[in-house]
Structures are given as structure tokens and as C-alpha cells.
What does this fold into?
Amino acid sequence: GAVVSQHPSRVICKSGTSVKIECRSLDFQATTMFWYRQFPKKSLMLMATSNEGSKATYEQGVEKDKFLINHASLTLSTLTVTSAHPEDSSFYICSARTSGGMRGTDTQYFGPGTRLTVL
Amino acid sequence: DAKTTQPPSMDCAEGRAANLPCNHSTISGNEYVYWYRQIHSQGPQYIIHGLKNNETNEMASLIITEDRKSSTLILPHATLRDTAVYYCIVRGDSGGSNYKLTFGKGTLLTVNP
It folds into this structure.
């Protein structure tokens, strides 16, 4: 399957600081990337959909000014958690969608996740 | 909300086949069935997907009932490394809200030695 990487894998920061997480599709181009968040013992929750060269679409309840998303190229999307607070501590996972020639054959591949801890 | 129903947990003996059921009785004609799994503290891993025909790849087989209201993921020879949460997801093939992967609670499969 296609490979998606994330950096960093783990970050600890102080409350009030900003943290940037990178998501890269290593062996394919992704016009669409997704950002998810997962709290302990919970399922993944979609935060936003990121399209290359355009503004991200945020899910209801997700603050766009707090979670800044940039999708500047077909292989890179970044998520910046601004003014992080302890309640932002979570497992952040990105996903990139391949573009398939046939209907329904495109697939989302996920990165390994970034564990954010805000002190 | 997730459009699928899965048992919260299952156990399987190492080396035996693991059969994970999924109900998706409200599936639409243009929606595919996708399976992912998530090993603890990792990102989800794509397993397989299908529309109406049974599918097989190097990881698993997907059996979809003729009415498409349910499916079964089969891991033919489960190993300890297959212990994970398995997610069954229905997703449309066109733009709109049904094109997103919406994760439910999944099934925690525990493979025992």
C-alpha cells in the first residue's frame, strides 16, 4: 500500500505555544488529505479535509483558527495547533487519498500518528 | 454517525481463521465497504474494500452478502500481530458527506496463542 509519513511522532509542549505537524505522502500525490484526532479509548474523529491549493473544510465544532491547515503541495499537508492547551492533548493522525482512475478505487492511507502532550 | 454495526470484541486462536462480521443494512447503491485496522498507538491500516463482489488480497478476504446489507472480513490464518481494532466503514464513491471515512467503534480482535 501507499506510504504516508508524519513528523514528529511525539511532541510535548507548554501551554500557549504552537505546534506544527507535517503529513507527507511518500510515493503518491494526494490532492486531498484529512486530519483526524483520537482521544484515549475513543475512535478517530475527522477534524478537517484539506485540498491542495485551497482552503480546508472543517468539521462542525472544529475551530479553524485554532487548527490551521495548509496543503501547499500534492505531497505535503501541515496542521498547526495554535495556542495549545492541555485539552488539545491527543493523537493526531493524517490521511492521504490516492486518486484512482476507476470509481471507488481510490483509497485513504493513514500516517502513523503524532502524539501531542500539552503541559 | 457510523453506518455500520460491529461486535465490540472477538477472540480468535492463533493460526485459525478470524471472521469479523459487519452489518450495514442502510448501505446505498454507490457505497463501498472498506475495512481498516488499528494496532494500538498506530495509524489505521487499510485492509480491503469492495462494492458487491467478494474480494481477496494478500491480507484478507471480504465476503459481501448478495443484498449488501452485511459483510465479513476473513483473516485466513490469524497471528498474534493481527490483534487490533478492526473498522468496517461504508463510503460513497462521489463527492459529498458520504465520501468521508467515518469511524465507528470497531471490533477489538484479540488473537490468543
